[in-house]
Amino acid sequence: MPTKLIVDCSTGVTTEVELTAEEIAQREADAAAFAEAKAIEEAEAQAKAEARAVILERLGLTEDEAKVLLG
Amino acid sequence: MATTYKAIATVTVGSGGAANIEFTSIAADWTDLIILCSLRSNSASTADNLKIELNGSTSNFTARSIYSTSDSSPNSYSFSIGEIAGINATNTTASVFSNTTIYICNYASANNKSISTDSVAENNATRGDLSLYATLWSNSSAITSIKLVAAGGNFIQYSTATLYGISNS
C-alpha cells in the first residue's frame, strides 16, 4: 500500500500514513491527467521542431548555422 | 537581530518511498515560505514532474514554464494542473537527485498566491534539465498545508524537503 509523509509544523512530528482508497483513486486520476498534459506538451514541442526545420530548409541553413546566427 | 529565515520542518523519505509529502498546520507567522527540495522519483522515465496542492486543493492553478536542457534551446509551456517543477526519475544517473526551490509569496494573505519555482533535474552523465515555473493559485485563503506530489511515481528514499519561513522584518 502506498504511503504519504505528513509533517505537523506545529509539533515537528512526522507520521507515515497509508493512502486511503479515495486517495489512491485520486492519485490515479491525477497521473492520467498528467500523462495527457505531457502528451500535449510533447506534441507542441514536436510541432515547433518541425516548423523550425521547415524554416531552416527554406533559408538553406543547418541547425548549427542557425545557432551561430541566433547565438 | 530579527530572525528572517527559519527552518520550520524537514522531512526525509524512508526506505519504502512516499507517494507524497505534506506540511500541515502551517502557522501564519511569516511573510513568505520557501521549500528547498532534493527529490528523485521512481517513475520509469528520464524526468518526473513535481506537483503542488495547497490546502488540499488541486484546482485554480495557472502556470507558465520555461524548460531547457544543457544541449537544447528553451521551450515554454502553460499548465493548469499544479505542476511546478521537473525532477529526476529512474532513467537518469543513479543516486542523483534534483535540486528544487519553491517560493510562495504572502502565503497568509487574503489575495491570490504567487509561486515561483526553479529546479534542475540533473543527469551527470550527459546533461542537466532546467525548469522555471511562474504559478498563480487563485484562492484568497491563507495557506495552512502544502502537499508535494511526484506526478508519475513515488519519491524514493533519501528525498528531502525543508520548509522555511521568511520574515520581512
Features:
heterodimer, A: 71 residues, alpha+beta, two-stranded antiparallel sheet, elongated, B: mainly beta, Jelly Rolls, eight-stranded antiparallel beta sheet, four-stranded antiparallel beta sheet, 0% helix
Give a structural overview.
The complex is a heterodimer of chains A (71) and B (169). Chain A has 71 residues and is α+β, with helices and mostly antiparallel strands. Chain A has one domain (3-70). Chain A is 66% helix and 17% strand. Chain A is built from two helices and two strands, in the order ββαα. Chain A has helices spanning 21-59, 63-70, and strands at residues 3-8, 13-18. In chain A, a hairpin with a 4-residue loop joins strand 1 and strand 2. Chain B is 0% helix and 53% strand. Chain B is built from no helices and twelve strands. The A-B interface holds A 2-12, 14, 16, 19, 27, 30-31, 33-35, 37-38, 41, 44-45, 48 and B 8-11, 13-14, 16-27, 49, 51, 58, 75, 77, 79, 81, 83, 149, 151-152, 154, 163.
The domain tally of chain B reads: 1
Decide which structural class fits the backbone of chain A.
alpha+beta
End-to-end gap of chain A = 51 Å
- Predict the CATH topology of chain B: Jelly Rolls
- Specify the number of helices of chain B: 0
Tally of strands of chain A:
2
Arithmetic mean of pLDDT of chain B: 91
What kind of assembly state do the chains in view correspond to? heterodimer
Largest interface: A-B, 26 and 31 residues
- Count of domains of chain A: 1
Largest sheet of chain B: 8 strands, antiparallel
Unreliable residue runs of chain A = none
Globally, the shape of chain B reads globular
Number of strands of chain B: 12
The helix count of chain A comes to 2
Strand content of chain B: over 45%
Spell out the helices and strands of chain A N to C.
EEHH
